[in-house]
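Work package 3, deliverable 3.1, input record:
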Amino acid sequence: MGRFHRHDDGTVHDTDTDTEHTGDHAHDTGDHSGYATGGERVEVLERIFDENDKTAAANRAQFAAAGVRVVNLMSSPGAGKTTLLRETLGRLAGQVRVGIIEGDIETSLDADRLAGFGAEVALINTGNGFGGECHLDAPMVRSALPRLPLGDLDLVLIENVGNLVCPAEFDVGEDARAMVYAITEGEEKPLKYPVMFRSCGLVVVNKVDLLPYLGFDMDEFLGNLRKVNPAAEVMLMSARTGEGVDAWCDWLRALP
Amino acid sequence: MHELSICGSIADIVTRRAAGRAVKVINVRVGQLRQVVPDTLVYCWELVSADTPLAGSRISIEAVPARIRCRSCDQVTDVGAIPVFACGGCGGFDAEVVSGEEFLITSLELAGEVASS
């Protein structure tokens, strides 16, 4: 997205000059005379995510009251979230009672892939007529809760919409955030999507069975990850071959 | 494209705080670590506010750079465009974000005449 912005009447202007606050943190107390045509200025100071965060707190309280641990699982599309979940459900069956909240812009394809593993699956399609929301927010997750028997569950795994940008912005009431990162995505993504990588306590590095076939430099990737999130726990995995999946299941069982 | 849903939240707050008065400018403070694209926000606001009492108002964005403070040596460092969350003084990674995560409506500028409510 460039800086320039075209209006329907054909005029183009530079938003950096149009939005005169840009880059000037101290400006707020400064000169607003450019706008002041006798109008009043009303101080607001309200956080834009306040409503989402209140709903997230309500979700969190409901999960806690039911004794359920909740993980918000995020990744780009195709990194392997659904494959990992399928492997997870197979391993935890009979030990941990799992519910899934499945976010997808359209289709029930992922939810269908998870059917038959003994877990309750609540699907949220985020299509909204504008091409679909690119993330789950707290009200969407709240809308799925009546479809999960929380009192009979130990763990809820939320499969967020595949996207490295927007899901990181929205607290949905989870206890922990984890991301699945596929080595096919390259080494530099932590630097390009620092907010996502910073927001996760655990980064699962998936598709390591492909290491012999790719020029992926694991040390460079881990170095980039450390630059933006030095505290992140890292787990190497191939959800396809099963390597590392047991360690992930142990991590889920040990959630505080 | 979460700017669209963000504009919905902005509309709710502005409608409540304006209480029927005509709004000209909505001043929004956005930290660098908020992944909001200014042009997209401005464009989405036109979509969301159209055909509502807020039509014709515009969003003005104040960008806040991301900065961290080192817990070891207390130095404050700009995170930079290619973000590195390391202290510029000692190189340590044990640092807290002191700015860049803001995302709020700071103020409204009213049109100077009271809209019918």
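The radius of gyration of chain A is 21 Å.
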